[in-house]
């Protein structure tokens, strides 16, 4: 009996959260075409990597860190109301200096201790916990990285300074990147060095790693 009651209460809570997601879905429905495209690309990438077939509401309710990406894309005064209904993930921060993040972001369940402070971030960006993109010194917010397309970061990665990370790049866990990284390679270490170059076939599938 007790287990059935707990199960019922859990279902009620889940239903209530989905009701809270309704204003988000309405706001999304009336957003501009480019914003819709970015959000749809995010959801598609989340589904691909999680091997699911879910919609926006599912990720807003069940993947709290994804909300931060969604709110970054929904730039309007009403976002404050949406954040009140479904709060952001407190351990994950996207600074106001980020001009744009292209679609296909994969936000894990646990990107705690993560700060994204970059000029811009390309499509199909993957990051883990303890990720830091930023400047080398306080106040140098114009000297931050540019991240290319199809870049995957391991846990505890630091990419700092006015540098560019190329397309189809994998950065190993624990790496500190302070210099430009070319396309189609993997880097690791402190300071990070190139440990592998990808051929055309490998680079085209690098985002699956």
Your description of this structure?
It is built from six helices and 15 strands. α1 crosses α3 and α3 crosses α4. The longest helix has 28 residues.
Arrangement of strands in the largest sheet: 1-4-7-10-13
The chain-level structural class is: alpha/beta
Distance between the termini: 45 Å
Low-confidence stretches: 1-8
Quick structural overview:
This protein is of the alpha/beta class and 209 residues long.
Essential attributes:
disordered N terminus; single chain; 6 helices; four-stranded parallel beta sheet; five-stranded parallel beta sheet; alpha/beta; 209 residues
Question: What's the topology here?
Answer:
Blueprint: H1 2-29, H2 33-50, H3 56-62, H4 64-73, H5 79-85, E1 92-94, E2 100-101, E3 106-107, E4 114-116, E5 120-121, E6 126-127, E7 132-134, E8 146-147, E9 151-153, E10 158-160, E11 164-165, E12 169-171, E13 176-177, E14 185-189, E15 192-197, H6 200-204
Parallel strand pairs: 1-4, 2-5, 3-6, 4-7, 5-8, 7-10, 8-11, 9-12, 10-13, 12-14
Antiparallel strand pairs: 14-15
């Amino acid at each position: 009996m007790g287990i059935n009651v707990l199960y019922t209460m859990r279902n009620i809570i889940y239903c209530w959260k989905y009701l809270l997601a309704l204003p988000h879905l309405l706001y999304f429905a009336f957003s501009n075409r480019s914003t819709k495209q970015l959000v749809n690309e995010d959801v598609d990438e989340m589904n691909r990597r999680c091997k699911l077939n879910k919609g926006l509401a599912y990720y807003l309710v069940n993947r709290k860190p994804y909300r931060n990406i969604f709110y970054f894309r929904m730039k309007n005064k009403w976002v404050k109301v949406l954040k009140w209904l479904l709060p952001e993930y407190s351990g994950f921060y996207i600074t106001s200096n980020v001009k744009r993040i292209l679609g296909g972001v994969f936000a894990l369940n646990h990107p705690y201790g993560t700060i994204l402070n970059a000029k811009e971030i390309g499509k199909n960006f993957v990051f883990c916990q303890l990720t830091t993109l930023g400047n080398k010194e306080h106040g140098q917010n114009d000297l931050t990285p540019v991240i290319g397309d199809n870049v995957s970061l391991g846990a505890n990665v630091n990419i700092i300074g006015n540098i560019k990370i190329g397309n189809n790049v994998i950065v190993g866990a624990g790496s500190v990147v302070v210099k430009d990284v070319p396309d189609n390679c993997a880097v690791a270490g402190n300071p990070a060095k190139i440990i592998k170059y990808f051929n055309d076939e490998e680079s085209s599938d690098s985002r699956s790693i």
